[in-house]
Design goal:
- It is a single chain.
- The protein is of the alpha/beta class and 448 residues long.
- The protein folds into two domains: 32-62 and 342-447, Aspartate Aminotransferase, domain 1 (Alpha-Beta Complex), CATH 3.90.1150.10; 68-340, Type I PLP-dependent aspartate aminotransferase-like (Major domain) (Aspartate Aminotransferase, domain 2).
- The protein contains 17 helices and 15 strands.
- It has helices at 4-15, 23-29, 55-58, 67-79, 92-104, 118-134, 156-161, 165-168, 186-189, 195-213, 239-250, 271-275, 302-310, 325-340, 343-360, 397-408, 430-447, and strands spanning 34-38, 41-44, 49-52, 109-115, 143-147, 178-181, 218-223, 253-256, 281-284, 296-301, 368-374, 377-382, 411-412, 414-416, 419-422.
- A four-stranded mixed sheet has the order 1-2-3-13. It has a four-stranded parallel sheet with strand order 6-5-7-8, with helices on both faces. Strands 11-12-15-14 form a four-stranded antiparallel sheet, with helices on one face.
- A hairpin with a 4-residue loop joins strand 2 (41-44) and strand 3.
- The longest helix is centred in the middle third of the chain and has 19 residues, at 195-213.
- The protein starts with a helix and ends with a helix.
- The relative contact order is 0.15.
- The protein binds pyridoxal-5'-phosphate (PLP).
- Pyridoxal-5'-phosphate (PLP) binds at residues 57, 117-119, 122, 151-153, 224, 228-229, 257, 259-260, 285.
- The site of pyridoxal-5'-phosphate has 15 residues, from helix 6.
């Protein structure tokens, strides 16, 4: 007898291409089909229950099954399902969401341009940054400096700003005018340096690159406060202060990509608050709506806003769904939930420190070379030898193996090469954290 799952898998094979997936490989195995979720749990079509250690794709901040968000979407859709923010028009939810974002963002950041996703936000930031300099008579100030192994999205500009070599190999990327410097990944690249020495050294690569290119050509530096998709790479404490100093010294705009870190993940509203960054631009998405509807944006400082208001004329950029009213209504309600349930404070004072303590226990496991984390985001490095840091298997194969054991054991954990990552919903409880850790331990034992 053919089960529902098998029927769906067959249809999937026939018609559906998946993002970041080897389609041939998937067609052999058949895809896992997630059909239900509640709180921090997911179920697939075979009824297998899993604790979602990744909050979807880092986005389901307030957890699944939130009726308040369903109701916000329903109400807005019945009143006004769509209208745009083009040509001197907008809608009440877009205005109210912009106001709420100004309230929760760093004091000097009070402005937002809405998009439909994190990738669109980074396309937008590239254009706004270059426009900012062009309208001030410096169109040649157009190069954006990013990092190797950064992730800024999948559109042409997003993937070019990103530093994923395997993405650049497809589609003729990166586009011109983007440079990549080395990342602050101490475990893999730190050698004999202390984390602090290494952080400083990697930040100073920005100054070297600015001087090499000529400051008159450099528009901005872009970085995720912590590199998420690259492997939860948490920069040493010396890194961001030095980057900030260099940006200030040369008058380079600083873009903090808050798509993952934004909305409480690191125990503050934004990663910029946690790492002491004073950004000019902040691309946002994901936790903004907890993923219930797609929405993103680019927030920017009052200094930038002055230029864009008074000197820029018409901004020839925008998306049909910029400020989509239903998505904006859901995002607004989502931010209200985060505020009302004090989720940011809870991550800072309770569940964040608790998860970090328990996560550290995994360092005792023979396969774990390092554990790291902040707030509710963590990573561990799989190794064969803790001292030499020799990898368990070539080509990051051990990560995939461990991830598959996690899935069988009822835990969604992500693998980036040989790094295992978690980023659970901000609503996760201490008991659920205990369950996550026990399942992670069992999966590590299975991998051994
Ligand atoms: N920026 C960062 C830091 C991200 O992690 C991501 C997605 O993971 C993006 C941008 C792209 O966002 P989206 O997938 O919504 O286009």
């Amino acid at each position: 007898m053919t089960t529902t799952t098998e029927k769906l898998q067959e249809l999937d094979r026939q018609h559906h291409f998946h993002p970041f997936t080897d389609q041939g490989d998937l067609n052999k195995k058949g895809t896992r089909i997630i059909s239900k979720a509640d709180g921090v749990y997911l179920w697939d079509t075979d009824g297998h229950k899993m604790l979602d250690g990744m909050a979807g794709l880092w986005c389901v901040a307030v957890g699944y099954g939130r009726d308040e968000l369903v109701e916000a979407a329903r109400q807005q859709m019945s009143e006004l399902p769509y209208y745009n923010s083009f040509f001197q028009c907008t809608t009440p939810p877009a205005i109210k969401l912009a106001e709420k974002l100004a309230e929760v963002a760093p004091d000097h950041v009070n402005n937002v341009f809405f998009t439909g996703s994190g990738s669109e936000s980074n396309d937008t930031v590239l254009r706004l940054v270059r426009h900012y300099w062009a309208v001030q008579g410096q169109p040649e100030k157009s190069v954006i400096i990013s990092r190797k192994n950064a992730y800024h999205g999948s559109t042409v500009a997003g993937a070019s700003l990103g530093g994923m070599g395997y993405m650049h190999k497809q589609g003729g990327l990166p586009i011109p005018g983007i440079e990549h410097i080395d990342q602050p990944y101490w475990f893999e690249e730190g050698g004999d340096l202390t984390p602090e020495e290494f952080g400083l050294q990697r930040a100073q690569l920005l100054e070297e690159k600015i001087l090499e290119l000529g400051v008159e050509k450099v528009a901005a530096f872009i970085g995720e406060p912590l590199q998420g998709a690259g492997g939860v790479i948490i920069p040493p404490s010396t890194y961001w202060p030095e980057i900030q100093r260099i940006c200030d010294k040369y008058g380079i705009l600083l873009i903090a990509d808050e798509v993952i870190c934004g909305f409480g993940r690191t125990g503050n509203w934004f990663g910029s608050d946690t790492f002491g960054i004073k950004p000019d631009f902040m691309p946002i998405a994901k936790g903004l709506s907890s993923g219930y509807l797609p929405i993103g944006g680019v927030m920017f400082s009052d200094r930038v806003a002055e230029v864009l208001k008074n000197e820029a004329g018409e901004i020839n950029h925008g998306y049909t769904y910029s400020g989509h009213p239903a998505a904006a209504a859901v995002a607004l309600k989502n931010l209200e939930i985060i505020q009302d349930e004090k989720l940011v404070e809870r991550v800072a004072e309770d569940t964040g420190p608790y998860l970090q303590d328990r996560w550290q226990e995994l360092l005792d496991h023979p396969l774990v070379g390092e554990t790291r984390g902040v707030g509710l985001v963590c990573a561990l490095e799989l190794v064969k030898d803790k001292t030499t840091r020799e990898r368990l298997a070539p080509d990051g194969k051990a990560g995939g193996l461990c991830r598959d054991f996690c899935t069988s054991n009822g835990l969604v954990m992500r693998a980036t090469g040989d790094i295992m990552l978690i980023s659970p919903p901000l609503t996760i409880t201490r008991d659920e954290i205990d369950e996550l850790i026990e399942k992670a331990k069992k999966s590590l034992d299975d991998t051994l």
